[in-house]
Specification:
Strand content of chain A: 15-25%
Shape of chain B: globular
Structural class of chain B: alpha/beta
Structural class of chain A: alpha+beta
Helix content of chain B: 25-40%
Largest interface: A-B, 30 and 28 residues
Order of helices and strands of chain B: EEHEHEHEH
Oligomer: heterodimer
Chain lengths: 159, 117
C-alpha cells in the first residue's frame, strides 16, 4: 500500500456498526503487512473507540454519524474516530477487577483501558467545536517491516 | 444491528468424575447479551457444580460483553466458592481476558478436553 493513503468511513450511531470500521481497519492493516495478532489488537481498539463514540459522544442519536479516518505512512497506520460529543476532560480510573468483584466498581468501563493497552499510541482530543476524536496508532515492528519489504520486492520482480 | 447471543446448557463429567455444567455461547457477546447470559446463569440446574463457559462459537466480544461475564463471576463468587473455567477463546481474547483480570477469578483453558482434565 502506498504511504500516504487515506480511507474515510461514516457509520451510524447504532451499536453493531462498529464492525464496519473494524473490517476496514483490518483490511488496511493487512495490506500494510501487520501480523494477524496485531490486526486483532487494532480491531478490538477500533471497536471500543467506535462504541464510545456511538454511546457517549453521540448518545446513540440516530441522526448523527461517527467518522472513522484511516491514514498510512511508511510504517504507521493511524485511525481517528470522530464524534459530536464534548470529549473527555479527564482520564477515567483504571479498571480494577477486585473492586468489580466486590461490587465496589461498575463492571463496565474497560473500553479506554483496552484501547490504550492494545495500540502503540492513543490520544483523546477535544475540538474543533462540536467534535471530539480519539487518535489510535499502530506501528510495524522490525519483523513486519521486513516482511512488507520482501512483498514489495516480489511485486516489482513480477511486473 | 447487534447480533444476539445464544446460550445452551449441557452436562459433562470431569476426569475426576465430578459433574460439570457447561454454558455454551454463540454469536456475539455485547451489551445486547445481558438478558440471554444472565437468565441462563440464573436458570442453572445446580448452584454449586463446577461451571465451564464455552466461547468456541463466539464471533465477537466487546468490553460491554466482558462486563456481563464479570457479572456472572461476581454472582457466582457471592454464593460461595464455585469453580469457574473458560475455554474456546481465541488467543487474542485469552490475552484480553487476562488483561482485564478475569484470569484471577476463572481459569482459562485451551479447549473442553483440557478444561475437564
Amino acid at each position: 500500500m502506498r504511504s500516504g493513503s487515506s480511507v474515510e468511513v461514516r457509520i451510524p450511531s447504532e451499536l453493531g456498526f462498529e464492525k464496519v470500521a473494524m473490517s476496514t481497519a483490518s483490511s488496511m492493516a493487512a495490506l500494510m503487512g501487520f501480523s494477524p495478532e496485531r490486526i486483532e489488537d487494532l480491531k478490538t481498539a477500533v471497536a471500543e473507540a467506535c462504541i464510545n463514540a456511538i454511546e457517549h459522544g453521540n448518545q446513540l442519536d440516530a441522526s448523527l454519524n461517527v467518522g472513522v479516518i484511516l491514514s498510512t505512512t511508511d510504517d504507521e497506520l493511524e485511525v481517528r474516530v470522530i464524534d459530536d460529543g464534548t470529549g473527555m476532560d479527564h482520564a477515567p480510573a483504571l479498571p480494577n477487577i477486585d473492586r468489580k468483584m466486590l461490587g465496589e466498581e461498575d463492571t463496565r468501563g474497560m473500553g479506554m483501558f483496552l484501547i490504550q493497552a492494545l495500540v502503540d499510541e492513543a490520544e483523546w482530543h477535544q475540538g474543533p467545536p462540536g467534535k471530539s476524536f480519539v487518535r489510535l496508532v499502530i506501528r510495524l515492528d522490525a519483523k513486519e517491516e521486513d516482511g512488507r519489504k520482501d512483498d514489495e520486492k516480489t511485486d516489482k520482480e513480477n511486473h | 444491528m447487534q447480533v444476539s447471543t445464544k446460550v445452551t446448557q449441557r452436562a459433562a463429567t470431569a476426569a475426576s468424575g465430578s459433574a460439570v455444567i457447561i454454558l455454551a455461547f454463540s454469536g456475539d457477546i455485547s451489551s445486547a447479551s445481558k438478558d440471554a447470559i444472565l437468565s441462563a446463569y440464573h436458570g442453572l440446574e445446580s448452584a454449586a457444580s463446577p461451571l465451564l463457559l464455552d466461547f468456541t462459537s463466539v464471533d465477537y466480544i466487546n468490553s460491554s460483553g466482558i462486563a456481563i461475564i464479570i457479572q456472572v463471576l461476581l454472582e457466582a463468587h457471592k454464593v460461595g466458592p464455585r469453580s469457574i473455567g473458560i475455554f474456546g477463546l481465541s488467543p487474542h481474547f485469552k490475552k484480553v481476558f487476562t488483561m482485564v483480570g478475569i484470569s484471577k477469578y476463572a481459569s482459562l483453558y485451551e479447549d473442553e478436553k483440557t478444561a475437564l482434565a
